[in-house]
Amino acid sequence: MDFGPHLVLATLEGAITAAVISLTAVGLSIVFGVMRVVNVAHGEFFMLGAVIAWWVVTVVGGHPALGFVVALVVAPFLTGVIAVIADWFVLKRIAYDPERTIVATIGLLYIIQQSTLMTFGPDARPVEPPFNQRLAIPWIEYGDAGFALIWPWGLGTTTYKLAVIAAAVVVLAGLWLVLKRTRLGLVMRATRLDSEMALAFGIPVNRVYALVFGLGAGLAALGAVLIVPIQQAHYLMGGDPLLLSFIAVIIGGLGSLPGTLLAAVLIGMSDGIISVFFSPTLAKIFATLLVAFVLVFRPEGLFGRRTS
User: Fold this and answer.
1) Alpha-carbon span 240 to 80, nearest angstrom
2) Do residues 152 and 5 make contact, with C-beta atoms less than 8 angstroms apart?
3) What beta strand segments (E) does 23-145 contain?
4) Whole-prediction pTM value?
5) C-alpha to C-alpha distance for 284 and 205, rounded to whole angstroms
6) Residue from 278, 277, 280, 231 nearest 5 by CA
7) Which of 101, 87, 38, 17 is nearest to 255 (CA)?
């Protein structure tokens, strides 16, 4: 097979990774931007969304599409509720202190991970996609007769993978509208800029923090639900999303949603393409080196504000 079709396939795989990492990284960025909390347990909320999705699909039964649609709603909601409970019983009690919240979320990481292991076991759990029609990847070749469009049926993608990309775009666009055009978004932005002044104007800052923490976890869980028909759910799957999300947030700029989104797309695309042509390990090494490069030459990130 020629290089061209393989490059197209690698680009599609990278776009899928970018879509999921965008949802996860934006959730992490919102939590840090509003609460100034570094949520080390963010990857475990991702994992929890995938495991809950498998459980919901198993309980609902019937046609795969029915269980998946229910999981698409239930898994992010339950994960968000668990995050809100964790916020009220853990983070609020330590007054959202930046240093202590790191230790606290590390504790949450192990609690969620080991609770999932004891409840669902160590086995990887497959989820059947709601639809999965095979699509060939078209490619243009130039020969003696000129340009020709060919359809190499041995190399292709599926309708579900394309739907994952489209769903991420829709969700991120909806999130942007909420943050920029609604009262809820205004309250979140006011709390982010000056929490004490927001409290003085009657904004319930602690409730906003709980909502934001739940929203960040819910976005990570939503990304997991979208990817679990492609990658099986298991209790150790939160590591890579957490790493790539932190990389995207650091490169894009702490608390900068546009920067995080751009960095997530770049990291996801490079991770997918390098993983197809070389190895996933090399992709992680490249992303880590990119973080080091950004920290040396632009410590505040691509879109972060320089502090004096």
Assistant:
1) 20
2) yes
3) 134-136, 139-143
4) 0.90
5) 37
6) 277
7) 38
Polymer length of the chain? 308
pLDDT at 155: 62
Locate 252 and state its tokens.
């894009």
Q: Give me Rg for the CA atoms of the chain.
A: 20
Terminal Cα-to-Cα distance of the chain (whole angstroms): 54
Percent of residues in the chain assigned helix, strand, coil, to nearest 5: 70, 5, 20
Series of mean pLDDT values for 10-residue runs along the chain (308 residues)? 66 88 94 92 96 94 91 96 96 91 94 94 91 74 55 68 94 94 92 89 92 96 95 91 89 84 88 79 81 80 64
Amino acid at 36: R
- One-letter identity of residue 105: T
Continuous segment of H or E residues that includes residue 261: helix 257-277
Residues facing residue 142 across a β-bridge: 147
